[in-house]
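Please go through the sequence and fold tokens given here and tell me how the chain folds. Record follows.
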Amino acid sequence: MTDDVVRSHARGIPADRVLAATGAAPDDWYDRLDGDGGRTIGHTAIAAWLVGQGVDPWWAQSVAVGYEQSRGLRVPGQRADGTFAVSASRQVDGDRETVLDRAVVVASAALGHDPTSERRGGKRPSARWTSADRESVLVTTEDGPRPGTVRLSATRERLTGPERMPEAKAALRDLLAAV
């Protein structure tokens, strides 16, 4: 698996941002976690330990993933439950709900069925398609960086192995390009 499909934590979030947000550089957190049994306690306990050290919960999750990847406990794209996920996004013109409506039509055609759930309104309207094997595709919309634009994202979740990631990522990019 390469950073071409899913970026590693180290490539995705620069160390200086972690330092500014948490008060310590990633390597400092990782050394402290090593000293407190981080290699054996699991993701949830690592994140809870970081929150206990005063780290914001979002950043605790981020540092925990970075730690697990740096220690070979998790590879990029792997979730805490052992499954894998990939995502893709693009900016499109429009508003959140209208873009989601278009995405639902395109994704339903590509996946062969209507969404199994939708969440409308709010900051991130979304739709999810879950298949019989429990894999799912989640499409979300949120305000883009410029007025009148939307960030359209799609995530393929619960992939059973890393070998599925390149194909799934390509399919997500094709899906988003069609919206």
Q: What stands out?
A: The mean pLDDT is 92. The chain has eight helices and five strands. Strands lie at 84-93, 117-119, 126-130, 136-143, 149-159.
